[in-house]
Write a structure and sequence with these properties.
0% helix, globular, seven-stranded mixed beta sheet, four-stranded antiparallel beta sheet, 115 residues, mainly beta
C-alpha cells in the first residue's frame, strides 16, 4: 500500500502549485481522501476532503476560495490545486485515505510560499 505525494516546492506569495497523490495497493475509489498539512511546531490539520465518488468536498476555512481538491479514480490520483498561496500556507502536505476499516497516510511533500 502506498500514497505518494508530489508537486510541492518553493513558490512566491500569490503563486500556485498543484499537488498530486498517487495511490497503489488498495481500492482507491472506495476511499474518501483528504489533504492535511503540518507547519513546523504545529499540529497536523485538515485542508480538504473529497468523498470516494467525488460527489462532495469540504474545505478548511483557510483553503476556501483558494484551493480545489479533486480526484481521478481511473488514475488512482488525488489532486490539490492551490492558488494565491500565502506564507502561512507553508507546511508539509500529506495525503490521507480513509476506508471503512483501514486508513493510510502518504509521506508528505513540502510546500513553501515565500513572502
Amino acid at each position: 500500500v502506498q500514497l505518494v505525494e508530489s508537486g510541492g516546492g518553493l513558490v512566491q506569495s500569490g503563486g500556485s502549485l498543484r499537488l498530486s497523490c498517487t495511490a497503489s495497493g488498495f481500492a482507491f475509489s472506495n476511499y474518501d481522501v483528504s489533504w492535511y498539512r503540518q507547519a513546523p511546531g504545529q499540529e497536523r490539520v485538515l485542508v480538504a476532503t473529497i468523498t470516494s465518488a467525488g460527489g462532495r468536498t469540504n474545505y478548511a476555512d483557510s483553503a476556501k476560495g483558494r484551493f480545489t481538491i479533486s480526484r481521478d479514480n481511473a488514475k488512482n490520483t488525488l489532486y490539490l490545486q492551490m492558488n494565491s498561496l500565502k506564507p502561512e500556507d507553508t507546511a508539509v502536505y500529506y495525503c490521507y485515505a480513509r476506508g471503512r476499516w483501514l486508513e493510510f497516510w502518504g509521506q508528505g511533500t513540502q510546500v513553501t510560499a515565500s513572502s
